[in-house]
Amino acid sequence: MGMRSLVRAMMVVFIGALAGLWLIGAQTAFAERGVGPCKDDIAKFCQGVQPGEGRIIKCLQQNESQLSASCREHTACLDDIEKFCAGIAPGGGKIMKCLKQNENSLSSQCKAQLESHHQQQHQGQ
Question: In this predicted model, what pLDDT tens digit does every residue of 89-125 receive, in sequence order?
């Protein structure tokens, strides 16, 4: 593999990793603001809920069985993040590192999302 190909492959992996970290770190923020893949679910199930302090997330969790597939997928790790990574400030891959350190204890939904993310990263190589 030439130097250019190696650099290109490294950039793809780096960008994929950043996108994955952003996705996990931004899940809570997206849900709280009512944007992203849960926008319609929030409008349907959490219409009267005041955003902030995790109230929208709690509402989504209470209605989990009725959420759209895309919203369920994007909120898969929220409980695990709250449980295992509550004291960790987002940024620099800290949340992802925390989830990986607690991988054996994660919910099956979060494990599946992390595995899907891992596979997507390796497809880009």
Answer: 877 888 888 998 999 999 998 888 888 777 776 776 5
Q: Which residues contact 25 (CB under 8 A, 6 or more apart)?
A: 90, 91, 95
| Cα(93)–Cα(102) distance, integer angstroms | 14
SS (H, E, C) 51-105: CCCCHHHHHHHHCHHHCCHHHHHHCCCHHHHHHHCCCCCCCCCHHHHHHHHCHHH
**pLDDT at residue 9, rounded to an integer:** 46
10 Å CB burial of residue 125 (0-12, 13-18, 19+) is exposed
Tokens representing 111? 């494990």
Q: What domain range is 33 assigned to?
A: 3-123
**Smallest Cα–Cα separation from 45: which of 36, 55, 53?**
55
pLDDT, mean over the chain? 74
- What's the domain count of the chain? 1
